[in-house]
Amino acid sequence: MFRDANKRMHDVLDDAGASDHRYVPFLCECADEECLARLEATLEEFEEVHITPDHYFILSCHPRVEEEETVYQNDRFVAVVKERV
Known about the structure:
This protein has 2 helices and 5 strands; from the N terminus they run αββαβββ. By secondary structure, it is α+β, with helices and mostly antiparallel strands. The radius of gyration is 12 Å and the shape is globular.
């Protein structure tokens, strides 16, 4: 659900010609279904993380599930892959 909302945000900003290097508030895509936290990422970072369907970005201190593995991390977010079991 949050990934879909983030995709819509990305598309609106991309269509409006927003800079790929400006930070945008996206919803955290962590394991907590009630999480409404925001993280900052550029449109370019969003595209890089979400180019693979099973990659998500979350805040580093937020809940994770055992099947998640970190694929990228910076001071604003962690990109995780949700492994298929």
